[in-house]
């Protein structure tokens, strides 16, 4: 196995209370003085990449992030978990990463360029969605741009000796098994009928020399803690920082196209506050109130 | 069920060490009778909920026994037949006035999470539960002072403060159940004592009802109390100010007074601003000397953002692995597979809280690097997001519940000079090995930066042998007292440590404490049989 590319996103920490200033319109979500962390699903992707690297000697895990200069912290965390090097596409401080300015199409376009530039990328592992925009689009868009095979919501990933990936993915009802292959000589797509046991279905996909694109879901693994020996090693690992403008130029893209969002955020507001409940003194009182509200005859 | 205290009669004296003072007062106390119950019903606004009369039915008696007559450690069992649950200060006042006139003993109870039996009736005193007095009145956005009822559950105060961008300065493992009135009355310490100080500093005002029913308002705003007109004799009240040097600071007597001088009904607490940046690391080191180095380095490298340092020893960590890791299973596996020179490594939790993520992270980074490069720590686990922060704290909060499942726990909470912190645990361990007491594991964890060690000695067998308990107590307390330490750093006195107070305090101090008690509660109705020797 050669390279595993793991795009990671720096988002507001999941436990933080989101504050919205509606007077600021689309820019309403407060980012100042708010704790930021790596997107939890991206953490799972990094963990999976490292586990695959541990099983396949010689594989290189590359963490990549698009955002302001603080993203290097997020990349360092990935390195402290075990990634080998990082790429930071640095945006100017006023560019918002949370869907307002940078959106999945822009990120996917940049990632496509990086994949082609890096060459020898066997697998791109992403989180299934980010917890700020909840889009879940970057992975599938990237696969489409690359014309690559994809599997989303992965709950288990196995790599075959022939370079194929067998992915068990979460569906609403059953677990479905998809197999992605790098076999150039075989036809691009083969259905394999199998008996459905315990709600799983086996599908084998043959791709043609493109990296597999897999997005990771919650059950895939539990991300490890950055530990001291690895934190120390991470300080020496290289992180290549390049400005968004320079990267766009290098990849032959149009800066305006990248920075102009495909979707416009019209309004941001907090959900209406939950109304306070009422305490009643007895069952009779409860029945009385329910009748009053017309909920009970 | 087992109990270490011998069943007491009306005399309400702790049998081992008879009270030298005020003995005659307590002899006059009696339990409630039917006419008393009728009176209480008449003063409560919701008597159907407010009065639990154990003499009325078996079910009610069962409820009282399970919920109010037993403490969290299950070491203490009372035999109260009557629980009163008032909703307003006025009701508390009427109840106490009546009990005072009729010499009826009253034990106040909050969340019933105390570890010294202080909230458990000794005999058939009336239990006064604060659980229905749980309104939060306000939080001043400039001073950060939060005003609320004493029955508010600590977690709800944390949530309310967080909504408004503030942090409630007290944080303890039982916060999902304990009530602020109880916290104040026991002067609870907690994880952030090191950073925010104790209740003596953070409580800026309170409303307290005295034994004779008088209501004292000490620097607390009463405009939200709907029952103004029915409250007896309230003093001039004022909004809760941060500073007020006009007279003896009486509220300090009630903080840590364990309900023996008055019943706290409202509190005003000063809350700091909510820090937006939190970092937590779990460190693994080989010996206590390394821990001392960690403490020193933390002051130098982390300085003002350091908010907690907690120690957990190997024995405790092993029990947590067996009984309580929960979500932290994953962390536990990584933790215990760390390679260490010592077979009994020590684990240190370090937390920082500040308002600038970048600079805080860089401080934490240089702190950890400095410790690692000097070989002070063998390993360190740095939480990278809130989930991992919760897991690490989860391990620390699992200490108490985990050992409780491992066997019978002899609990000690001591204060010693930081340099000698582990000495007591080691000395006790050696002494127990030499004694003829079998199968005992000494666990030590706690707020190491405060010099506060929770020493828990777990016995393999589940029955509480009184002689064994006394022998262990003697070994632990003599080890502490010879180092001029405190036999109760934060858990208080309650029932369990009463007999030792006489031995650890000067005569003049004991005399004055007794006189204060006589002044505030001459009939000895408040929490009889507790606190004072």
Low-confidence stretches of chain B: 1-20, 226-237
Largest sheet, spatial ordering of strands of chain B? 13-10-12-11-15-16-14
> Which chain pair has the greatest contact?
A-B, 29 and 34 residues
Tell me the quaternary state.
heterodimer
Give the CA-based shape of chain B: globular
Rg over C-alpha atoms of chain B, rounded to the nearest angstrom: 24 Å
Which class of secondary structure composition applies to the elements of chain A? alpha/beta
Largest sheet of chain B: 7 strands, antiparallel
Question: Can you give keywords for this protein?
Answer:
heterodimer, A: 297 residues, alpha/beta, eleven-stranded mixed β-sheet, two-stranded antiparallel ribbon, 13 strands, 28% helix, B: 533 residues, alpha+beta, seven-stranded antiparallel β-sheet, five-stranded antiparallel β-sheet, 20 helices, disordered N terminus
Structure in words:
- The complex is a heterodimer of chains A (297) and B (533).
- In chain A, helix 2 (71-81) packs across helix 5 (228-236) and helix 3 crosses helix 4 (138-146).
- Chain A has an eleven-stranded mixed sheet with strand order 10-11-9-8-7-12-6-1-4-5-13, with helices on both faces.
- Helix content of chain A is 28%, strand content 25%.
- By secondary structure, chain A is α/β, with parallel strands linked by helices.
- Chain A is globular.
- Chain B is of the alpha+beta class and 533 residues long.
- Helices cover 36% and strands 18% of the residues of chain B.
- Chain B has helices at 23-27, 34-43, 47-50, 58-67, 89-101, 154-163, 180-185, 193-196, 199-202, 251-254, 288-301, 314-323, 329-336, 357-373, 386-397, 399-406, 421-434, 466-481, 498-504, 507-520; strands spanning 51-53, 82-84, 106-109, 126-129, 136-139, 145-149, 203-209, 215-218, 263-270, 277-285, 306-312, 346-354, 379-382, 408-415, 440-447, 452-459.
- In chain B, the strands form three sheets. Chain B has a seven-stranded antiparallel sheet with strand order 13-10-12-11-15-16-14, sandwiched between helices. Chain B has a five-stranded antiparallel sheet with strand order 5-6-9-7-8. Chain B has a four-stranded mixed sheet with strand order 1-2-4-3.
- In chain B, 51% of the residues are buried.
- At the A-B interface, strand 3, helix 2 and helix 5 of A face helix 13, helix 14, strand 13 and helix 15 of B.
